[in-house]
TrEMBL record:
GO MF term (any one): unfolded protein binding
Species in which this protein is naturally found: Hanseniaspora valbyensis NRRL Y-1626
InterPro entries referenced in this protein's UniProt entry, alphabetically: GrpE, GrpE_CC, GrpE_head
Domain of life: Eukaryota
Protein name from the UniProt record: GrpE protein homolog
């Protein structure tokens, strides 16, 4: 801005000097007077532009300051908004924790229910095995009567042992203990225990043809596999 004014001032002086050299005295006075008014007008215009620039700068600075300053109401609103945002975040976190806690509790309920049911169904497993041995002894006792001559006393004894064995078996069945007698069935390693094999062309290979010891299950779980003889495949 200053450089342009200086150039304009120099051009005016040069033009004035040329005109002075060419024109008479009166004309020179008029030209000097005109130039003085021109210079004053240019200076006044420059001062006006400078003041306008300063006013614009002050206005801009005031607008920026007003933009940065906040009223108490705005500050209170921002604080409330920040509190609401924090409460929303906490609510989401506690909701997730609640959902996980409920899921964990339900899983614990299911696990506990299964454990209680398992304990109820198989808590008597060891005691059942002891009863099974008693049933085996009754069976051995009955076999000892086979092929022997019986008098009245032995017959009564035989009937008493047989009756006691039947009562034992009914009691075992009542509590979920079932006898496994797989004669004629296909051999199953999950339920049977093969003790020997025998070739029999009249029967299918892998068939149980003899039971050496009865097996038992407790509520579907094998507590003693049946010891069996299995038909061997013929070559």
């Amino acid at each position: 801005m200053i450089s342009a004014t200086q150039n304009s001032f120099k051009r005016s002086l040069l033009n004035t000097a040329k005109l002075v050299q060419k024109q008479p005295l009166k004309s020179q006075v008029r030209y000097f007077t005109a130039n003085r008014f021109i210079l004053q007008a240019e200076k006044k215009g420059e001062d006006t532009k400078a003041k306008e620039g300063e006013q614009q700068a002050e206005t801009k600075e005031g607008e920026q300051q007003a933009a940065t300053e906040k009223t108490p109401e705005q500050i209170e609103i921002e604080e409330c908004q920040n509190k609401l945002d924090k409460m929303g975040s906490d609510l989401k976190k506690f909701k997730d924790l609640y959902i996980r806690s409920v899921a964990d509790f339900r899983n614990l309920q299911e696990t506990t229910k299964k454990d209680v049911s398992r304990a109820k169904d198989f808590g008597l497993q060891k005691f059942s095995k002891d009863l099974i041995e008693t049933v085996d002894n009754f069976g051995h006792c009955l076999k000892s009567f086979e092929g022997k001559e019986k008098n009245e006393e032995i017959e009564v004894l035989h009937e008493g042992v047989e009756m006691t064995l039947n009562i034992f078996k009914k009691t075992l069945n009542k509590h979920g203990i079932v006898e496994v007698n797989p004669v004629g069935e296909k051999f199953d390693p999950n339920v049977h225990e093969a003790t020997f094999e025998f070739a029999d062309p009249t029967k299918e290979a892998g068939t149980v043809f003899h039971v050496q010891q009865l097996g038992y299950t407790l509520n579907g779980r094998v507590i003693r596999p049946a010891k069996v003889g299995v038909v061997k495949a013929t070559e």
